[in-house]
User: What shape does this take?
Amino acid sequence: MIFEITTLVRVTNFKGGHKWYGSLLNKKVDFIPHDGFVGWEIIPDCWLQVAEGIPSEESGPLRLGVTDLIAERSRLVKDLEIDEFEIYSREEVSAKWGTFTDPWGNRIGLFEYLDKKEEKDRIKTILGV
Assistant: This one.
């Protein structure tokens, strides 16, 4: 089940990018998990993340929230014949994630909340229950 969308852009000047995107969105940042990374919830459960780095000529990754990352990876490997992708996590981030490419080279990421109560609460909010 896909239930959330997050997209990421990279900027070479992080302070400038943080300020520029804050002005663009006309709001203060909602999430700062570590240096060089910020995120804004644009509309409920739709996030824009800005990270320090070299902008990619590729699009994405478009990140989609799932309830079971390993099961979704298995399904995609089988049904879409993508290569099995690695799953990553960081201590200061409340999710695990993995990224793969579509047949045209666009990067797509899946992520799963580690805190299942938080995940269920987010799904309830999205579904309005």
User: Anything to note?
Assistant: Strands lie at 2-11, 31-34, 37-43, 46-52, 62-66, 88-89, 95-101, 107-113.
